[in-house]
């Protein structure tokens, strides 16, 4: 009955974690059983996009789109069903029957690039491991406390000075174009191919899944420029979506529900190998929104530590990173701004929590861990101030440099936007107190300035549910209510399987509703429970996004009847059938009236049918005629 292809699709659907798939694109926040986020399919500032993992569905109450994880991917990437299934089968490693790689050239190219990178990693590592102890790179790594175990865990390697050692090794196996695209070789000014990385320590970069996709390469000699040479973006590498160390950190990020973002490869290697295993860094680029969104997949409460260098550039990176994180999670609620004890709940309370790890010695994390030890660094992480406190402190530190009233006023101007962000008015007034006494300015004057600038920033939040009610007619709503009862009680089909009989008198009027109803009737005897029913329905209508949207609607509606017992459900059935009947009668009456009015101009004709109509109308009113 079910084809081998459909069998594989159902197997894939079993593997899918819809939260996992969607949170790669949308930052989700949990409220009860549902996750909320900003809809990727229409612009909005307050979340009306919901995901219900229990049901495996998403639904946007703003623009109305909905479906399962497959629908989401189809809409997001503009893929057709087959493309989407192919992607998922690769992602979950579930082979598809009669899988033909038609548009497969690109895939093959990617696979070859990945393979070439993997071989390059091995090549560079062999060179490093067989280099003599007095080799400058070996000495450099040893000075950084990088042991052979660390070298092997992070697959560190060495590119020699010779121009084309790697190329000589790989050119027999791969076309030049593959090696160029993978960023392993470049054309020299003489027109021949040479290795891209020479005389450098090689730091391979892994994707979230562990594939080697790019390289960072550190200069070995003083004065060798640039200090870090990085792979450019390619078909397998997009640096704004890749975080160094994520592959080795992701389990810890999940476990600790927090992540430490650092600046450099060696910060991460040092941190992770000293037990700060939830550390990652961007790869030779500044942090992006995509990076931040990606992390929220692993830390559900979005607790992010920024641990950048303590120099000026690092401070700017902290400021920028903070802004970026706030932007990524805006709309999910308030950012955590002060430490307080609160009643534990499963729902996360804040949109995010940003803390700053800044050891005072003015060293980057790697240097600090090596000089003061991992425990000292961990203590800084454990006591890291919230971003707001950190920023205020940094600004207040400047007070000793402030002499003239003008300078003081300039400093106040820098502080006000930070005070503005404090959402709780009592806490805000406490901060105003602290700042005014630290800078010796009038408290009420400062408070007034904060108020004025807040009023300027204020914008009115819109309501989540403002768009929920669509202009469906009463009949349609009642018909949908009836069909939705098929999806009641996830576990068993007791109610659903008897429903068809109970609603057989109803004439469904909407074409899509009829198709869905017929398909449910067809499927209901072949499935074991409601989840199988929904899975099969989505498979059945895989190519029709509007029908998928309707199915999602029905599932959402069914949730509003959950918890009712069988008697109560039967009442729901009766009430909706009565509503449909009443509407049908009303409709018929309107039509008859119209006919009556149309013929009214012709007096004899009117008289003829007047009696018939009056008779019929009376019967309709009293319900004698259906
Ligand atoms: Zn939407």
Task: Label this structure with key terms.
626 residues; 10% strand; binds zinc ion; 51% helix; Dna Topoisomerase Vi A Subunit, Chain: A, domain 2; DNA primase DNAg catalytic core, N-terminal domain; five-stranded mixed beta sheet; five-stranded antiparallel beta sheet; alpha+beta; 5 domains; DNA Primase, Chain A
Give Rg in angstroms: 32 Å
What number of domains?
5
Mean pLDDT: 84
Helical proportion, percent range: 40-55%
Taking strands numbered 1, 2, ... along the chain, how are they ordered across the largest sheet? 1-2-3-4-5
Number of helix segments? 26
- Please, what is the oligomeric state? single chain
Question: Could you give the distance between the termini?
Answer: 40 Å
Low-confidence stretches: 341-345, 458-471
Total number of beta strands:
16
Outline:
With 626 residues, this protein is of the alpha+beta class. Helices cover 51% and strands 10% of the residues.
């Amino acid at each position: 009955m079910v084809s081998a292809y459909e069998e594989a699709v159902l197997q894939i659907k079993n593997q899918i974690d819809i939260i996992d798939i969607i949170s790669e694109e949308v930052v989700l926040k949990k409220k009860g059983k549902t996750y909320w986020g900003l809809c990727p399919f229409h612009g909005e500032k307050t979340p009306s996009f919901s995901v219900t993992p229990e049901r495996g569905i998403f639904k946007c109450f703003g623009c109305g789109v909905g479906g399962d994880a497959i629908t989401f991917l189809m809409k997001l990437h503009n893929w057709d069903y087959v493309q989407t299934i192919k992607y998922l089968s690769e992602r979950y490693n579930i082979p598809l029957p009669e899988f033909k790689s038609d548009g497969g050239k690109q895939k093959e190219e990617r696979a070859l690039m990945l393979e070439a990178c993997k071989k390059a990693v091995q090549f560079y590592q062999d060179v490093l491991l067989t280099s003599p102890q007095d080799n400058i790179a070996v000495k450099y790594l040893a000075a950084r406390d990088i042991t052979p175990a660390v070298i092997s865990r992070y697959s560190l390697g060495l590119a020699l000075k010779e121009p084309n050692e790697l190329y000589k090794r790989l050119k027999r196996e791969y076309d030049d174009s593959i090696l160029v695209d993978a960023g392993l070789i470049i054309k020299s000014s003489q027109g021949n191919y040479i290795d891209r990385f020479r005389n450098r320590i090689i730091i391979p970069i892994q994707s979230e899944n562990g594939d080697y996709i790019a390289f960072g390469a550190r200069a070995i000699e003083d004065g060798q420029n640039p200090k870090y040479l990085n792979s450019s973006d390619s078909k397998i590498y997009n640096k704004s979506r890749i975080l160094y160390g994520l592959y080795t950190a992701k389990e810890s990020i999940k476990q600790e529900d927090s992540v430490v973002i650092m600046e450099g490869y060696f910060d991460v290697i040092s941190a992770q190998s000293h037990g700060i295993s939830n550390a990652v860094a961007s790869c030779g680029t500044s942090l992006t929104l995509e990076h931040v969104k990606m992390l929220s997949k692993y830390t559900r409460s979005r607790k992010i530590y920024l641990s950048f260098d303590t120099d000026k550039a690092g401070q700017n990176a902290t400021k920028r990173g903070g802004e970026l994180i706030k932007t990524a999670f805006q709309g999910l609620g308030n950012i955590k701004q002060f430490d307080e004890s609160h009643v534990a709940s499963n729902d996360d309370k804040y949109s995010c929590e940003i803390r700053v790890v800044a050891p005072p010695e003015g060293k980057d994390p790697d240097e600090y861990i090596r000089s003061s030890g991992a425990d000292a660094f961990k203590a800084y992480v454990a006591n890291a101030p919230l971003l707001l406190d950190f920023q205020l402190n940094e600004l207040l530190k400047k007070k000793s440099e402030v002499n003239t009233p003008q300078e003081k006023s300039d400093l106040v101007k820098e502080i006000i936007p930070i005070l503005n962000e404090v959402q709780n008015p009592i806490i805000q007034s406490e901060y105003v107190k602290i700042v005014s006494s630290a800078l010796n300015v009038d408290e009420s004057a400062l408070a007034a300035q904060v108020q004025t600038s807040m009023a300027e920033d204020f914008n009115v939040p819109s309501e989540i549910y403002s768009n929920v009610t669509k202009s469906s007619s009463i009949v349609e709503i009642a018909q949908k209510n009836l069909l939705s009862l098929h999806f009641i009680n996830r576990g068993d089909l007791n109610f659903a399987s008897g429903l068809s009989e109970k609603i057989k008198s109803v004439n469904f009027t909407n074409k899509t509703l009829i198709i869905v109803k017929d398909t449910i009737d067809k499927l209901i005897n072949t499935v074991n429970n409601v989840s199988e029913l929904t899975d099969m329905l989505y498979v059945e209508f895989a190519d029709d996004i509007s029908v998928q949207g309707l199915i999602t609607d029905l599932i959402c509606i069914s949730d509003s009847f959950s918890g009712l017992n069988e008697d109560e459900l039967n009442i729901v059935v009766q009430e909706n059938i009565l509503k449909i009947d009443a509407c049908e009668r009303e409709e018929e009456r309107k039509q008859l009236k119209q006919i009556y009015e149309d013929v009214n101009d012709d007096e004899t004709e009117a008289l003829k049918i007047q009696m018939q109509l009056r008779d019929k109308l009376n019967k309709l009113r009293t319900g004698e005629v259906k």
